Amino acid sequence: MAKRIRRKFLFQSESPTDTVPLSPSSSSKIPFRSTKVRKISSNQEPAKPQFSAPDGYNPTRTFPNLADPVKSSSSLDEISTAINHLRRSDPLLISLLDSCESPHFKSNPPFLALTKSILYQQLATKAAESIYNRFASLCGGEASVLPDTVLGLSPQQLRVVGVSGRKASYLHDLATKFIEGNLSNSLILEMDDETLLGELTAVKGIGVWSVHMFMIFTLHRPDVLPVGDLGVRKGVQRLYGLKDLPKPAEMEKLCEKWKPYRSIGAWYMWRLMEEKGVVKKGSDLPDNMENRG
């Protein structure tokens, strides 16, 4: 019953493939997984790549707007600094900061997290988890959810594990952009927020809301304000006693004082909605980026 009720809080963002939940859940902290590298003996030939680079591949492509360095909110010191800043800059947050545990964030490698983001779209959590687990098995395990592996799966193979034809095209587009060099795990980690938003929304099936969730929960970017997220908007409305839900421009103005830690402020807006009983505390809501990232 709880899951059926919270589905009512979903609404479509400006991207037709981007479903916005009321609130991501509250847990999480896993560092990026290290990739196991198999040593190759001098007498053993390295495995040949399964796919050749598609037309248009440019290994020398550069991005002029790389951040140096990109800040992260994953460390305890950074979280503590953010909370102290919010406490000083916005007294209305003090009681909420005192009543909630500190934020914790988890993550997966960017390609894997983005793949999950696509697969979880517009699905209840259990259904999405089931499809994702079958998809990962089809790839040969979660560690093998890689661009060339995904691109090698036909729409028919994906359909067997529950992936729709539309989502299969999204997955293939994402994998193609990685193989062509437009995106990579390392590039994503280095891009500034504006550049990253432009590159990721160029992928079919990934909209602004998904990128904001990815920035917050996978990349741990500290200053992202998801102005299209219903849970954050409702939290801001309740915090400041507004009659109506704030629009994006009003959100930017009201939350200006939270800079440069608006991601943490947004996290507390989700917690505020839990405390007020709008959603069940610790609940796993559909299309939850934390589960995916």
TrEMBL record:
<keyword id="KW-0234">DNA repair</keyword>
<dbReference type="GO" id="GO:0032993">
    <property type="term" value="C:protein-DNA complex"/>
</dbReference>
<dbReference type="GO" id="GO:0032131">
    <property type="term" value="F:alkylated DNA binding"/>
</dbReference>
<keyword id="KW-0227">DNA damage</keyword>
<dbReference type="InterPro" id="IPR003265">
    <property type="entry name" value="HhH-GPD_domain"/>
</dbReference>
<feature type="domain" description="HhH-GPD">
    <location>
        <begin position="119"/>
        <end position="274"/>
    </location>
</feature>
<dbReference type="GO" id="GO:0005634">
    <property type="term" value="C:nucleus"/>
</dbReference>
<protein>
    <submittedName>
        <fullName>Alkylbase DNA glycosidase-like protein mag2</fullName>
    </submittedName>
</protein>
<dbReference type="GO" id="GO:0008725">
    <property type="term" value="F:DNA-3-methyladenine glycosylase activity"/>
</dbReference>
<feature type="region of interest" description="Disordered">
    <location>
        <begin position="1"/>
        <end position="58"/>
    </location>
</feature>
<feature type="compositionally biased region" description="Low complexity">
    <location>
        <begin position="15"/>
        <end position="34"/>
    </location>
</feature>
<dbReference type="Pfam" id="PF00730">
    <property type="entry name" value="HhH-GPD"/>
</dbReference>
<dbReference type="GO" id="GO:0006285">
    <property type="term" value="P:base-excision repair, AP site formation"/>
</dbReference>
<dbReference type="GO" id="GO:0006307">
    <property type="term" value="P:DNA alkylation repair"/>
</dbReference>
<dbReference type="GO" id="GO:0043916">
    <property type="term" value="F:DNA-7-methylguanine glycosylase activity"/>
</dbReference>
<dbReference type="InterPro" id="IPR011257">
    <property type="entry name" value="DNA_glycosylase"/>
</dbReference>
<dbReference type="InterPro" id="IPR051912">
    <property type="entry name" value="Alkylbase_DNA_Glycosylase/TA"/>
</dbReference>
